[in-house]
Amino acid sequence: DQASLPDLDLLHDPEDELLCANLLDLVQATLGKAPLGSQRCSRLLMPAQLVAQVRTELLRLACSEPCGLRGALLDLCVEHGKACHDVGHIAVDPAVVPTFQLTLVLRLDSRLWPKIQGLFASGPAFTPGFSQSLKLSTGFRVIKKKLYSSEQLLIEEC
């Protein structure tokens, strides 16, 4: 069920909105430096539609938390096939004791997969400093785990 626009406005904290924008900048910077192979340098790019979808989902998952988005730990992963590669960990506000953990699982654009299979292998790089940009798919998964409760995991597939 979709909440109406006025309901969504009541749920969103202006501080969380700004924090989420800064968090997504940090996520994109982390993806830009993702170590995707033994010595290769590559950049993972988030399409604008993916950024907007992730922003909405992060704010929605944080609205029921005691400290809002400030209480989140974010694990960033990139999935290809059945493997999931850890690319970063972010404490949204290091001054706040975390109350929940989010694992954001992004996917490579499957149309690119045959071209970039070797990037995740541990074989030698073509040349030192090799750099290329890879686009992420607009599909993603977020796993939410409350750190102060024994509730089950919440997995959102988008």
Q: What does this protein look like?
A:
With 158 residues, the protein is an alpha/beta fold. The protein has one domain (13-117, 133-147): RTP801-like (Ribosomal Protein L22, Chain A). Helices cover 28% and strands 33% of the residues. It has four helices and six strands. It has helices spanning 5-11, 14-32, 48-62, 113-116, and strands at residues 41-45, 72-80, 83-91, 100-108, 131-146, 154-157. Strands 1, 2, 3, 4, 5 and 6 form a six-stranded mixed β-sheet that branches. A hairpin with a 7-residue loop joins strand 5 and strand 6 (154-157). Helix 2 packs across helix 3. It starts with a helix and ends with a strand. The relative contact order is 0.20. The model is unreliable at 3-8 and 121-130 (pLDDT under 50).
In terms of quaternary structure, the protein is: single chain
CATH topology: Ribosomal Protein L22, Chain A
Order of helices and strands: HHEHEEEHEE
CATH class: Alpha Beta
How would the global form be characterised? Answer: globular
Rg of Cα set: 17 Å
Task: State the share of residues found in helices, binned by percent.
Answer: 25-40%
